[in-house]
Automatic annotation (TrEMBL):
Protein name (Swiss-Prot/TrEMBL): histidine kinase
Included range, full protein: 268 to 526 of 660
Domain Histidine kinase: 20-241
Species name: Sphingomonas alba
Signal peptide: none
Amino acid sequence: AEAQLRQVQKMEAVGQLTGGIAHDFNNMLAVVVGGIDLAKRRLSGPRKEVLHHLTNAMEGATRAAALTRRLLSFARSEPLLPERVDSRELVSGMSELLDRTLGERIKVQTRLGTDAWPIFVDSHQLENAILNLAVNARDAMEGTGTLSISTENVTLAANQVGDVRAGEYLKLSVGDTGCGMTEEVRERAFEPFFTTKPVGKGTGLGLSQIFGFAHQSGGEVGIESELGKGTTVSLYLPRTEAAAPVRLHSQTAGGQSEP
Ligand code: ADP
């Protein structure tokens, strides 16, 4: 029975992983298609603009290629190696991508500490997490609003957020001025395949993937949301020196709020 249970859990993990990758891949293809489409429309316009859109498309394609490489390395059972990441650098490097994803009517505000503690994570997964959060925020804001990305060094007591271990964390928050969540949605938001979006729009995998990423990085994720006001999702990622070995968690539904 033990082995059977393990097998079921393994299949669940594979399902979640595959779905998550499809979700990311789709986001990247949207960037490629969008870039090529814009370039096509600007063909008779300034050469600089056409080149700009093509460069964006190229970047999306490069990301997609990196993702499939990671998938292949996973299939070969090569572990993803976390690395020391400077959050300020990583988020700054995403500003173009974020502007493009959010459109002109959503303002991006960043408050990234120069003294932000370095973290120990897979940088591509962190980028995907932030991109996923930005897409959710865009959907919640229906076109206009402000997306804010901020970092803060925090020292947490055990279980202060979710089932986090006591220690030093970088709190990376992505907030929006969108529709917010009901209590029921907040509680279920991390469940794989839970979505309130129409068929074809939502997969319900974004937040469950982020939940998995945070836990596998030895951290946590929490949601604060107020209906009609907005939502902030915060990732708590262990400070490099405090980086813990990979911790495997079952994916329980856990909308964790902060104290
Ligand atoms: P998807 O976005 O594909 O639906 P997610 O797992 O990312 O899947 O999100 C699950 C649900 O959580 C969404 O359908 C939505 O109802 C809610 N949600 C996620 N992010 C936000 C947000 N920023 N504001 C309001 N609701 C959100």
